[in-house]
Input
Amino acid sequence: MRKFFPLLTFCLLLFSSSFAAVLENEYIKVIVNPGPYDTGRFTLQTTGGDPARADDDNAELLFGGADPWSSYTTIRIDGTDYVFGGPTQTRAGFDLPSGEHISGPERRGNAIYTIYQIGDIEVTQVLSFARTSTTGLEDALQIQYFLKNKGSAAHSVGVRLLLDTKLGEEDGAPIRLGNRVITTETALRGNLIPDFWQAFDNLQEPRVIAQGTLRGGSLTPPSEVLIANWGTLADKSWKVSVDPTAGFIRKGEDEPDTAFALFWEGSLAPGETRQYCTQYGLGGVTISRGRLSLGVTSPREVIRREPFKVVAYIENKEQTPVANSWVRLQLPPGFEASQQERNLGEIGGGQARTVEWVVVARETAQSGSSFQVTVGGDNCEPVSVSRKVIIIGPPRIDVSFVLPNITKHNERWFLAEDPTSEIRIFPVKVTVKNTGDSATVVELVCGETEALSLALPYDNYKYIGTLNPQESFDFVWYFAPHGFGGGIGRFQVTARYHGRSQQHTGTFSYPGLKPRLFTAQRKAEVAKNSTFSVEIWAQNVPQLDEYSLVISYPDFVRLVSVWRGTAARPDSFTWKEEGPGRVRISSQAELRDLVKETLAILNFEALAEGAGEIRIIPEAPSALPEIRHGLEVKGENSES
Output
């Protein structure tokens, strides 16, 4: 019996499946479980499938049909494993904690989003459609995970994506991986991880051809890939030891059940976001049948001067061997590859071979040209396959800035285009545009700065995501000046994409602001026998750590009390009357640039009518100017 799970869960899934989030086109359809169990898990099916074949319509590509549960994702944070999505009652991720549900699955445009919070890490799953490299059609499911650290400490993170593959009715088809045919448990690491893998039963009558794409374009190559039977991978939340002698048949059963586990690992600084992206869907193989059947796959679009692979699958479906077999790659002008003709020796009855070439399109290569692969042998009529290649240019990323034009008035900063709104941090609008001919994933890092710092230090990393040709993305970075002295601010931004790193610099000036003291009286008019308050404000004071003021006031008012201002450190504020009409205020402050805060609040009682001034003399910091506050007390009001 294939994959047991409890009857209660089965009933719940049947009930919830009618509300599942669904995304489909003319080739494939993804179904996402809405919960309450297995939230966010998904299955993949064909709709119309490959337009060239009618026998792959409405076929499964991932097990589960309308009730996704057997493919699941593990999120590892600081060595602890969590299942992405809601809790499960199945063996697939059983007993793993699941974090806090934030939203989804919900369709946003042409994608389905599911978001969970696990401690400091916000995890977003985005499922959308993408073009398969070998078909050129939107017949692949693009699977993305965004991990954002919303905490104040760094964390180690990891993602394991378990895909319970199924090709129509076939649950254990051989895996075609580079020049290998995989029929036993396999671990792949580093350079052994291919650009893509394909799976199909045979070249004579393949019903469904699946492809997992691991490298290229916007994809994030995994650090490790495990291929094993589903049970072995489903029962463990992270890595398992594979047995190279074991096939894909689960223990105690007699039918193969192939599954893939893809791993990504890294670390996240506070505020940092990491994206992990892969694709799974249909594969493009051009087939020619004979005594030796031949299938050939290659990317539909290639970038000039960048290597791509041509893979030939060769099968002898008859019982008698073919001796002295050979295969030949014929390239059009401008394309290069080594060992274009290869001797394969004897291919026995029922045996298969895979051959791989690395090809480069040079400057003289013409887009739309076709190459041909031919296979033959003794007493075997040669068969050939031709495939067309479209040459496109590489991505090219331009980064531009709209720099702020900063003015000042009354010792405060303003943008020239908006002189009514004071600013304390400076906005820089950033535009990132792909002016090249192919899509790429882009990320920006703001590194070195002069006379400026990012207003939010952890905001230095910006994940832009995939930019298609001529597509652009805008956002704003905010910079805080170093002090109030003015000068020229400079920042440097590094754009990373397509294995490249390029730097861009922005420079702008801002005027200096002088330290300033000013007062504010809470009552516009003061009457005899009433009380009133005068606030003492400081503005544009660099690196304030303490302050001391000597204040004198006229004899027709009496000082009742002094309250500490917002700039004072708790338990450090003191005031002392030093004689008639004179008070000294002292306090410590947190060492910082003081933009605009109160130093003290003076509370007075008006004793008699009169006109005069309150004189404020700063002893520290010495940069503060002396100021005078005009004061007038009028006749007694009705409250007296």
About this structure: The first strand starts at residue 21 and ends at 24. The chain is about 0% helix and 55% strand.
